[in-house]
Structure formats: C-alpha cells, structure tokens
Design a protein that fits this description.
Number of domains: 1
CATH class: Mainly Beta
CATH architecture: Sandwich
Distance between the termini: 48 Å
Structural class: alpha+beta
CATH superfamily: Lipopolysaccharide (LPS) transport protein A like domain
Helix content: 10-25%
Radius of gyration: 17 Å
C-alpha cells in the first residue's frame, strides 16, 4: 500500500525540522516498506486497512512502532494510534500518542505527549506537532495550563509550554 509507505518515510522528517542541516539526509522514500502486526483487517467496501497489535513498519533505516495504523483511502488519510515511535539514525526519535497523515493536504500531525530527540543535539517536547510536507515547516505547540493537576499530567507538557534543550555545536565537539 503506497500511502502507508509514504507515512513511514515522511514521519522521519518531523524530527529533522527542529535540528539543523537536514539530519534525515538522503532517505529514499521509494524503498520497500516491511509492515508487521498481530492482526490486519481489510474493509473492502469501506476501502480501509487496519493493522493492530504491535504494529511495526520499516523503510530503509526508518522504523515506526505503534498500537494501531489505519489506512483510510476514501478520506485520503492514515491514522496511527497508541505509543507512536518513529526512529531514524539520522534524524533521531519522534514519539507521540497519535499521528495523522493527511495525504490531500500533505500534513503530518502528531498529538499527545510529543517528544523529539536527537542524541546529543536536541530534545523538544510539546503536545501537538504539525509538519507541512510541501514546505518543510514544522510547528510544535503545547496544551494550555490545565485546571487540575490530573489534567496537567495528561497534557504531557507542564505549564502548557513547549520545552527544549539544544546543545551548541561547540559543546558537541568539545571545542569552539
């Protein structure tokens, strides 16, 4: 399924949007994608395919893990839910609770407890990440301060703010 292949490849770009120098490098989105899950269900009339239970997708060096992935062809969207993790040795790791890839608008949205992490370079967290796949512009936002402590914990980002740590290049290499 071509759309599923694109999602696995494109989610890797979201981590690179917050780091410098295009860290994803030359990922080949035309590589084959290997998908595995505990169960796959196809709705031929509804034109959807749903993978559930320890869903894993691999394209080249990019790896996707989640609890559920649904390709909704009539709406031209892919939904990914539950412990979404996208790993790439070049761009790092992006995690969230849910993801949607809108193939018509060419937007990838991760929501929930979103964390972008590039080992030794940058860590960013918030509650909503949107990536425009045409322009390459990514926006990370946070949930406003919640009314109760339980709601604040559920929001994933204390105080409703985007948080981040960026390590300067001089600190990464040990010199100026």
């Amino acid at each position: 399924m071509r759309k599923t292949l694109l999602l696995v490849a494109l989610l890797g770009f979201s981590g690179a949007a917050f780091a410098q120098n295009g860290l994803l490098g030359k990922h080949d989105a035309d590589q084959p994608v290997n998908l595995s899950a505990d169960k796959m269900e196809a709705d031929l009339k509804g034109k959807t395919v749903t993978y559930t239970g320890d869903v894993r997708g691999v394209q080249g060096d990019i790896r996707l893990r989640a609890d559920m992935m649904k390709d909704d062809s009539p709406n031209n969207k892919i939904y990914i839910r539950g412990k979404v993790v996208v790993d790439s040795p070049l761009s790092g790791t992006v995690t969230g609770d849910n993801a949607i890839y809108d193939l018509t608008k060419k937007y990838v949205t991760l929501s929930g407890n979103v964390v972008l992490h590039k080992q030794g370079q940058v860590t960013m967290s918030g509650s909503l990440l949107t990536v425009n796949m045409v322009t390459g512009i990514a926006t990370l936002g946070a949930t406003p301060v919640a009314a109760t402590a339980n709601q604040a914990a559920a929001a994933g980002t204390p105080g409703g703010r985007v948080r981040g740590v960026v390590i300067p290049k001089s600190a990464q290499t040990g010199g100026p």
